[in-house]
Amino acid sequence: MSITPQSEQRVAVLKGLGTYLPPRVVSNEELSGRLETSDEWIRTRTGIRQRHWADQGTATGDLAFEAGARALKAAGVEKVDAVVLATTTPDHPCPATAPAVAARLGQGTVPAFDVSAVCAGFVYATAAASSLIVAGLAERVLVIGAETYSTILNPEDRTTSVIFGDGAGAIVLEAGTAGEPGALLGFDLGSDGEYPDLISIPAGGSRQRSEGTAPDPSAYYFSMQGKQVFAHAVNRMGESSAALLERIGWPTESVDRLVGHQANVRILHSLADLLGVERERAVVNLDRVGNTSAASIPLALADAVNGGAVKPGDRVLMTAFGGGLAWGSTALVWPDVDVV
Ligand code: UT7
């Protein structure tokens, strides 16, 4: 599915970006102390050096609240017309996490809902929020990607425990026109439901019910077939990015920064090679935060802006891939906005 607005068309424009990382840093060395792994393996196979994990008692909604408050501050606004929250790790299976976050943010009775698209969640949530704006249902929307993967990781599974981190990022979108900096110029979204088992929490939903019927306690934890996922990730993000670039008329060489989902530095380099974007243009912050799933894109974006890698006027391509399988891409010219 794709959406590409015309130049004077009403679109969603990015007005501010906020992020939050829980303070506790978990190093590769700390994990090597209790799992059969090593700093060397984690660094060379993934690029990750550390990740942040929330302390016991801190939930996704708490991280989402902090990032959301910062995004509102960055945009200089107090009120939005809707809150869309992407997460794989909601506070509860029911209800959604977004209404409670919206209430804590002082947003009253605005519509608030969760989007479940795993690591592609932020792009999906941004597309949903943009659609509310384009349809005239909202003038301003707060989009949040927030995760506490530390709560769903199997502590005995070295293949997932070393990869994922907790964190949150949020943006404020406002109605504007496609010609403005910050305008979301298009979306390319897709899914392939032939591979639901490659990334999953098998039990706890209606398929394997939670009342003790799941045969294996590990079925309640997150699991991933990393090797197969790797290939799908590169190909799907590559195809989706290329399709979007063609539709919005950006030659590949005009892309200043590629903000890809931060799963593995080898994936980001393979993606850059496949697209024909220089590897140096691929933003990398997974070395410090790991794979934060739905929070990955805004955290990488904020890191790049704060580090001077993304400047106003730069052409930024964002692309993400995750469980489902699901993927999505969007693009904008970076506006002169605050990052908090
Ligand atoms: O966020 C959604 C999208 N997610 C992704 O895109 C993740 C994509 N996948 C990956 O990033 C990589 O596949 C991983 C980082 C997850 C794994 O890297 P890999 O190079 O594909 O390793 P592998 O799964 O093929 O495993 C190679 C070896 C295996 O040992 P044998 O069978 O060769 O003896 C694993 O058991 O490495 C072993 N291994 C480890 N060794 C030390 C797997 N995890 C670890 C570990 N420490 N943490």
TrEMBL record:
GO terms for cellular component: cytoplasm. InterPro entries: ACP_syn_III_C, ACP_syn_III_N, FabH, Thiolase-like. Residues 113-193 form the Beta-ketoacyl-[acyl-carrier-protein] synthase III N-terminal domain. Its main location: cytoplasm. It is found in: Cytoplasm. Its EC number is 2.3.1.180. Transmembrane segments: none annotated. The keyword Cytoplasm applies. GO terms for biological process: fatty acid biosynthetic process; secondary metabolite biosynthetic process. SUPFAM superfamilies: Thiolase-like (SSF53901). The keyword Cytoplasm applies. Pfam families: ACP_syn_III (PF08545), ACP_syn_III_C (PF08541). GO terms for molecular function: 3-oxoacyl-[acyl-carrier-protein] synthase activity; beta-ketoacyl-acyl-carrier-protein synthase III activity. Pathway: Lipid metabolism; fatty acid biosynthesis. The active site is at residues 119, 261, 291. Catalyzes the condensation reaction of fatty acid synthesis by the addition to an acyl acceptor of two carbons from malonyl-ACP. Catalyzes the first condensation reaction which initiates fatty acid synthesis and may therefore play a role in governing the total rate of fatty acid production. Possesses both acetoacetyl-ACP synthase and acetyl transacylase activities. Its substrate specificity determines the biosynthesis of branched-chain and/or straight-chain of fatty acids. Homodimer. The last Arg residue of the ACP-binding site is essential for the weak association between ACP/AcpP and FabH. Belongs to the thiolase-like superfamily. FabH family. This is Beta-ketoacyl-[acyl-carrier-protein] synthase III. It comes from Kitasatospora atroaurantiaca.
